[in-house]
Every structure is written in C-alpha cells, then in structure tokens.
Amino acid sequence: MRHGRKILTLLLAGIGIGIVWYYIQCEDSCAYLAGELMGLDLKTVGLAFMLAVIIATAAGIQSFLKMMLAGGIGGEVYLIGYQFEQDVFCPYCLAFAAVMFAAFAVNYSRPRISGSGLVYLLGEARFRIAGKERSFPLIAFIAAGYAFFCLLFTGSAMPVYAYEPYPRIFGKGPVEIRIYTDYFCSPCRAMEKDIEGALDEIVHRNKGRVIFIDTPIHRSTVLYAKYFVYSTRGKTDYASAKKIRKVLFEAAGQNVSNEQALADYLKRGGIRFNPGETRDVFTSYDRYIREDNIHSTPTCVIATRNGKKKYTSRNEITEVIRSISK
To answer: Which CATH fold would you assign to the domain 3-156?
Structure first.
C-alpha cells in the first residue's frame, strides 16, 4: 500500500470515528434517524467498521480493505435511499457516508484484468484461494453490502408512539409553548435546568400555556413516557409534573432502562404512580409530533394567533422561553 494512500485512509477513518463520536455525544440536539443492524445500533456499527478499517490499513491488507469499503458503500447507498424515502436527512449520517465514499476513492486502483469491462469498472479485490490468486469485482461486494442492509436493517425516521390526548397543559395565556424532549437526550437534560425558572414564571403568572411532549428518540423513552403518565394521574399541578420530570431525567442519566428498575427508582424519589391505559395519551403525543414535524430533541414550538415558530437548539429554546417569561 502506498504511504500517501495509507495516511489518507487512516485520516479518513479517524474523521469517521470523530463524526460518530460527536453524534453519540448529542451536544446540541438529538436528531431522530435511528437504526439497527442485527440488533446493534448503527453508531456502534459505524465505530466498529472504522476501527476495522484502521486495523486493515495499518496491517497493509489491501484486498480485504477494498472488500470492506465496497460493502460499506453498498450499505451507505441503502441508507441514503432510506433517508430520501423517509424525507428525513441526518447530517451526521451523510457526513459519515461522504467519508466512506472518499476512503473508497482513495483506495481505488485499476483492475489488472485486461478487457474486464463494466463488471470491474469500480475495481477489484484479489485473494489467494487454493494456492491460486483470484480476482473479484468490487461491485459484487457493493451489491452484497446493499443486500445485507436490505435484509437486516431496521430503522425509523419519525418519532412515533405506535398504537399507544391529553398532554397536561400548565398555565394560561395567549402563547402556547410546546416542549419536545427525550429523557435520554443530554441537551434536553441540561436545558431543563436552564429553563426551569423561566417556566415557573410563565406558568405562575399565566403568561403562557406550557405543554411537555415526551418524544421517543431513545428506545426506552416510551417506557419513561408511560411512567410520566402513570405518575401525573390525579396530579394537575405544575410543581408535581416538574418534580416527576426531574426524577425521570435523573434516572435516564443513570441509564435505568428496565421497567422494574425504573419503578423502584421513582419510588425512591418519592414519586407515586398509578398504572393504567396510556393509548389515548400517546395518540395525542403522536398527533402533536406529526403536526409540528418533529425530528429532533430538544425542540420547542411557540404557537400564537399569528402562527407557529419552531426552535431546535438548546440555546435558542432557552433564550425564547426566557424572553416570554419577562
């Protein structure tokens, strides 16, 4: 492997890992384009893939590297098509795809087979089998990667409480403040503390109507939303809802994802709950999510007689809520 090609491949793999890591940290918002491959989160798959690229590159296993990258290209083609199909585009996913295509291009070399035609247009990988060196077209690995994702990828690009209206409305006033959060979203957890005082002012001084809408970005969020409903039954005051949300955010921060563990955590936090049917509540949440076209958390929609405006980052949401409270 040429030294320059090797350095570029290692650099691109490092960038790919950086993109995935930044997405995992979810510093500004949690975009909702989630997926799994054979039960593994795509972010985990992406990290493992780029680590494998680094190992293959460092070891100089060029044919294996080409085969991996070709399979990865097939997977990316599927995922890009999936985003077009769902009409939801994830910048991190697209950036990672760009890195994958760049790494494939960097490692491209003309096939050694003369008169190979279109089959070998995208290159070849050579392996020694039974003592003989054999050539395989990379387009076959691209097709295999695409087929692999077709069969084993499961994903979603819209937060949905499938089959499962009330959200509680706190306060009165001409402005409706819809706050979409996920308990496992780090920016949401941090923002909750930023806006707590401002929301207290808005609710207690009747400057607006506050609605909390739990948005299922993380796989365990539906469970948390269910226990929020259980815990607010018979409690219509804002103080109770605020306390319940605080304990749920704390539980998510400790990655409590088992139902019994969550129930025990709430009990230790002094939260009483009354299990029951949640279908109507979740139907209402789903209606709001679709109406406001929510794809990430945190998101805040400010609705007035003059229309609605959406805010999608922690800082701008904090700023607008504080301005309403003044």
So the answer is: de novo design (two linked rop proteins) (1.20.1440)
Distance separating alpha carbons of residues 211 and 263, to the nearest angstrom: 24
Let me know: does 181 contact 216? Beta carbons within 8 Å: no
- Angle 168-169-172 from CA coordinates, rounded to 5°: 160
For residue 18, give every residue at least 6 positions away whose Cβ sits within 8 Å of its Cβ, in sequence order, or none: none
pTM: 0.62
Residue pLDDT tens, the chain, 326 long? 577 889 999 999 999 999 988 877 654 556 656 678 887 888 889 999 999 999 999 998 888 999 999 999 999 999 999 888 877 778 888 999 999 999 999 998 877 766 556 778 888 888 888 778 888 899 999 999 999 999 998 876 656 554 434 578 898 889 999 999 999 999 999 999 999 999 999 999 999 999 999 998 888 899 999 999 999 887 778 899 999 999 999 999 999 989 999 999 999 999 998 888 787 888 888 889 999 999 899 999 999 988 999 999 999 999 999 999 98
CATH of 169-325, one of 2.70.150.10, 1.10.287.1080, 2.40.50.1070, 3.40.30.10: 3.40.30.10
Q: Is 212 helix (H, G, I), strand (E, B) or coil?
A: strand
Amino acid present at 52: A
* CA 202/CA 172 separation, integer angstroms: 9
User: Strand 132-137 relative to strand 176-181: parallel, antiparallel, unpaired?
Assistant: unpaired
The answer to whether 3-156 and 169-325 have equal CATH topology is: no
Pull the structure tokens for residue 282. 């979740």
CA distance 285 to 226: 11
